[in-house]
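Regulator, Streptomyces ambofaciens. Tokens?
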Amino acid sequence: MPEIPLVPAHWCFPAHPASVRRARHAVAESLPDVLRPQLVYDLCLLTSELLTNAIRHGACGEGGDLVELVLWPADGHYWLAVSDPGTGKPALTHPGPDCENGRGLLLVESLATAWTVRPRPTRGTSVIAGLSVHQGG
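Tokens:
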């Protein structure tokens, strides 16, 4: 008989900046105590960056938008998917030294073992990033 996988942790938050703190807390509370503190820190940092991007760039501004967060372990990684109702495709940019924004995905690129952007089947976009449970440190 195959091993039954864990049910992913799943949350929906209002597309509002106050949700970023709530999402970080939810992720940290859902992780097992045996994970290294650096992995928990990195997952919370990824949560902040991805959720902030979803709120800023993917919410339609209609007031009732929600952003979705899913966290699950698989294949030696913790995977984080942040989804929003927007149709844009987030892209890695290299802002100049005087730019105040635009470095979120550079941070994701630096932290994540792998990441990608995927359209959702019905509406919106998901950014998925994974961190290796066995990474050095």
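The chain has one domain: 9-132.
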